[in-house]
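QA checklist item 7 of 12: single-chain prediction sanity check.
[x] sequence parsed
[x] length recorded as 277
[x] structure emitted
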Amino acid sequence: MKIEFKDYQIGFLTQLFDVSADTIRLYAKKDLLEPKKSEANKYRIFCREDVFNMDCIMRLRDMGFPLEDIREIVCNSTLDEVYEKVEERRAALEEELRRLTCARDNLKNHSRMLKSMLEDAEQTAVTSEAVTFLMIDIQDSIPETKAFLQKLDPELRPYLTLHIPDDGEQLECNQDFLDKKKREQADFVITCEDVNGISRRPDFPHDRIRLIGPACFVYSIGPAYLNSNYEFVEKVSQFIDEHHLTRNGNYFTQYLMSQYIHGNPIDYYRTFVPITD
């Protein structure tokens, strides 16, 4: 479409910029456009400067600026001030993009975890190869502790974990876990699999992070019903006994998710016990 430098009616601008006539009128009301009224028919007449201004408005709108900020930029700002506002907006979008990327990655991981829960629920097995887990005490807060791990490796997937210290009494059956005194020997920690082998790096912070493994693990995913049923622990112990395996440490249980169905709280756990070859 060839655009001539002349005066235009509102319909031409709506077609040129793919916006409604109400949008054009709003911009004129906000003094972003300065149409004249035709003496012949009282229609709003827009000039080529309005076309330029409209192009600038649309670009600022595409950058995510709200209308009042666009008006401030177009009508009341020096070039230096416009630069500062654009940089502020860019920084805000970078932070929003970082937050959205993190949310997307969390959704992917949660979806992967749920798929694993559906496929492996109620099953007990042995890892196909030796793996290493990282274990870290919670300092300051859970989010800060998880962030510390993911700063070392963004691909780490940390979980809040119940851990029975190796010098603690083993909890091997449902009845053991129902015993409050026995249960209280468990610690809250954060664990994750060392998927990329960062524990082998020279700068790995051994002073803060403990290693479990490399070893093979008996693992199981299953539900627990608060203060009534912790059979997931018992199933792991039974599996070890039935397959004549030898423990190489106490178990740790990663917390996956909770539900509250018909008034009954249900927690889902992934339990690991290291074994010798």
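[x] summary fact logged: The chain has a mean pLDDT of 85.
[ ] second reviewer sign-off
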